[in-house]
From TrEMBL:
GO molecular-function terms, A-Z: hydrolase activity
Gene3D superfamilies per UniProt: endopeptidase domain like (from Nostoc punctiforme)
Protein name: Cell wall-associated NlpC family hydrolase
Alphabetically ordered keywords of this record: Hydrolase, Signal
SUPFAM superfamilies: Cysteine proteinases (SSF54001)
Organism ancestry: Bacteria, Pseudomonadati, Pseudomonadota, Betaproteobacteria, Burkholderiales
Signal peptide: 1-24
C-alpha cells in the first residue's frame, strides 16, 4: 500500500511539473510486466541522443524534413511551440524539396535547405510506395506559387497556447481530443485551406495522395506536432501511425540569434 501511495504521489508531483512546463503526457496502465507509467512528451532531438548523421542519399521521396535556423522568426516559433523545430519540408526525391514559406509554395534543391538551416532532421511515414510518392510530388509541384497562409499562422499562435489546457497531465485522451477539436473549430475557423503554411502544406500533400498522416485538420498542425508524432514520443495530435526517424542531415548547436534576411 505504501509503495502504491508513493507511486501515486510521484505521478501527481510529476504531473504538476509537467503542467508548468506545458508538456503533453500519456498515462500507461499497469501490465503484468510494468507498473503504472506516466510518459512525457520529449523535445530531445540532437544526434548524440540516440540519433545519427546521414547523407542525402539515405532519403526517400515523401520523407518529412523538420528544420530550425538561427533567426528571430525561427526562435519565436520554437519558443511558442516549446519545440526545437520551426519549419517542415517535403522531400520529393531526386534532390528536390517543396515547402511553403512567406513568399508562397516553392520547389528547390535539398542542398539549399541543408546549407541554410542549423538543423535538418528527417522522418519517414511507413508504407509510402512509389505510386503514393508520385502523387505527392505531382500535387506539390502543382501548388508552386500558391500564396502563404499568413492568417492561418497568426491564428495558430494563440491556438498552440490555449490548447495546452486540453493537454493537462492525466487528462484522458478522448477528453483531450474533444477539447482540442472544440478550440480549433472556434479559433481556426477563419484559416484558409487553399493557402498553406509549412506543416499544413506537408500534411495536405499526404492527404491529397490518399495517405493522410493524421485525421486532424492540417490547419491545426505545427512542425512541433509533426516532431511529436515520431515513434516513442507522446503526440499532441494523434497520427495514423508513428513517424520513423531516418537521421539528421545536419546538426549544429544553436548559435546566437541572427537577424532575419530578406
Amino acid at each position: 500500500m505504501r509503495i502504491a501511495f508513493r507511486s501515486a504521489a510521484a505521478i501527481v508531483a510529476a504531473g504538476t511539473a509537467l503542467l508548468l512546463s506545458a508538456c503533453a503526457t500519456r498515462l500507461d496502465l499497469p501490465t503484468k510486466d510494468t507498473g503504472l507509467r506516466l510518459r512525457v512528451q520529449s523535445s530531445v532531438i540532437a544526434p548524440g541522443n540516440g540519433g545519427e548523421l546521414i547523407a542525402a542519399d539515405a532519403l526517400a521521396p515523401g520523407d518529412i524534413l523538420l528544420t530550425s535556423i538561427a533567426t528571430v522568426n525561427s526562435f519565436g516559433i520554437r519558443l511558442g511551440t516549446f519545440s526545437p523545430v520551426s519549419h517542415a519540408v517535403l522531400y520529393l526525391g531526386n534532390g528536390q524539396i517543396a515547402e511553403a514559406v512567406g513568399t508562397g509554395v516553392r520547389a528547390r534543391p535539398l542542398s539549399e535547405v541543408v546549407d541554410e538551416e542549423q538543423m535538418v532532421v528527417a522522418f519517414r511515414v511507413p508504407g509510402v510506395d512509389d505510386a503514393g510518392a508520385a502523387r505527392m510530388r505531382e500535387w506539390a509541384l502543382s501548388q508552386v506559387g500558391t500564396s502563404y497562409n499568413t492568417v492561418g499562422v497568426l491564428l495558430n499562435a494563440p491556438f498552440v497556447l490555449n490548447r495546452r489546457l486540453c493537454e493537462l497531465p492525466l487528462v484522458p485522451t478522448a477528453v483531450s481530443h474533444y477539447c482540442m477539436s472544440g478550440l480549433a473549430m472556434v479559433q481556426l475557423g477563419a484559416s484558409r485551406d487553399d493557402q498553406f503554411f509549412c506543416s499544413q502544406f506537408v500534411l495536405e500533400a499526404y492527404r491529397q495522395a490518399g495517405m493522410p498522416i493524421t485525421n486532424a485538420d492540417p490547419r491545426w498542425v505545427s512542425p512541433a506536432d509533426l516532431l511529436h508524432m515520431r515513434e516513442g514520443d507522446v503526440p499532441s495530435i494523434a497520427a495514423t501511425q508513428p513517424l520513423r526517424y531516418v537521421g539528421h542531415l545536419k546538426y549544429n548547436p544553436p548559435p546566437l540569434l541572427a537577424a532575419d534576411g530578406p
